[in-house]
Specification:
Number of helices: 15
Order of helices and strands: EEEHHHEHEHHEHHEHEHHEEHHHH
Number of strands: 10
Oligomer: single chain
Distance between the termini: 35 Å
Strand order of the largest sheet: 1-4-5-6-7-8-9-10
Helix content: 40-55%
Radius of gyration: 22 Å
Largest sheet: 8 strands, mixed
Structural class: alpha/beta
Bound molecules: iron/sulfur cluster
């Protein structure tokens, strides 16, 4: 038995402490203009036996940590040993198991971009084996594409839920067809709705990601209103917002360079977020758990928290131009987390100093600089 197993490149922020099990490699679509994660990498299904070997490798690492805990006099408390391993892990896989155990060992996330594309019986087999081998796991989540979820038979999704699949994270990004087409998302609003509804009907929890700013200067209004309309029909458990960040390696980077895509400023994106929230008419939890979001405090349960969320936007929009710039630069430089921190004079002063350094004329930081600060986040 080896002390290592394969890991994919990403997981959602909400799965930071989950065990990572790679069931496929890369993305079977891989064409979205705003995504660089798997570009140049070929999609592959992994044989079930290979995935099982990885799960057994996790168990072997877990057993070694348990044995060390007993020898060190911690009894069954593996967390103490896991914490020590986190400071000096022998490899990335060991680190992932230690982190997972440190945080209770109850969640697993199946990588990479679209696990639902596996044959249902094979994914069921993997889920069963995972839960049998590592019985502390009570929650298993994964990424999926709407198009794949739209093609799955409702009974197949129910089988997956019964085998232990608790939640799917889907990159909805937008509900506006011309924008989905321009971004080469490979899915229509109707397919988003069908796929999303299939998942909700199966009883698997659904989290839909929306990409703020994706409409750019040309399509921001429709992006906001049509995305809200699609989500109102799906009514997912979670709507998670992220903000468009563009870097080299994304086809959209070239679109910006050749002038086909005009990026919005942070203030314009917030105006779009306001329109989006105003148009939401569903029961979902809206979550802002991504560092790319300017106003991470915009969170709440719909519909009851809608006014509170809009009030946060109104508070930002009512700031003076100088304070708005201070907040935007402070947020993009990683100094602020929340609007309230504008009242922290130490942080406020250090942002002012950053503005002096970053601005060309001593008081105005240009959009290019803000965008390059954001690139560090993805
Ligand atoms: S489907 Fe997801 S992972 Fe694949 S290219 Fe699009 S955004 Fe990237």
């Amino acid at each position: 038995m080896t002390d290592s197993f394969e890991l994919g490149p990403i997981r959602p922020p909400s799965e930071a402490y989950s065990l990572l099990i790679r069931v496929t490699r890369n993305c079977p679509w891989n064409r979205c203009k705003f995504c660089h994660i798997y570009k140049g990498k070929k999609f592959e299904l992994r044989p079930v036996e290979e995935i099982k070997q990885d799960i057994l490798a996790v168990k072997a690492i877990q057993d070694r940590l348990k044995e060390t805990a007993w020898k060190a006099g911690y009894g069954g408390k593996v967390e103490e040993v896991a914490a020590a391993i986190l400071n000096n892990p022998p490899n990335e896989a060991f680190f992932n198991v230690a982190l997972w155990l440190y945080y209770g060992g109850t969640s697993a996330f199946l990588q990479d971009a679209n696990s639902l594309i596996m044959r249902t019986n094979e994914l069921v087999e993997v889920l069963r084996f995972l839960k049998q081998t590592l019985p502390t796991i009570t929650r298993v989540t994964s990424y999926a594409r709407s198009k794949t979820a739209a093609k799955k038979k409702p009974e197949e999704l129910v089988q997956l839920r019964e085998a232990g699949l608790s939640r799917l994270h889907i990159g909805l990004e937008s509900g506006y067809d011309p924008l989905l087409e321009y971004m080469d998302k490979g899915v229509t609003a109707a397919e988003h709705i069908k796929g999303g509804k299939n998942i909700v009907a199966s009883g698997i929890s659904l989290s839909e990601y929306v990409l703020l700013g994706l409409g750019g200067e040309k399509m921001w209004r429709e992006h906001a209103t049509e995305t809200a309309k699609v989500l109102n029909q799906i009514d997912p458990d979670f709507i998670r917002v992220r903000t468009l960040t563009i870097k080299a390696g994304m086809p959209l980077y070239d679109e910006v360079k050749n002038g086909n895509f005009i990026r919005q400023t942070d203030e314009e994106i917030i105006e779009g977020e306001k329109l989006f929230i105003e148009n939401l008419d569903c029961q979902s939890n809206l979550i802002s758990d991504h560092i790319t979001n300017l106003l991470q405090e915009i969170e709440g349960k719909l519909p009851e928290d809608k006014e509170k969320m809009l009030a946060t936007i109104a508070r930002f929009q009512s700031l003076s131009p100088e304070e708005k710039q201070n907040f935007i630069v402070g947020r993009r430089a990683g100094i602020y987390e929340r609007l309230d921190e504008l009242n922290n004079s130490l942080k406020h002063d250090s942002v002012e100093q950053a503005i002096q350094r970053l601005s060309h004329n001593g008081n105005q930081v240009d959009e290019e600089t803000i965008h390059s600060l954001m690139e560090r986040f993805i």
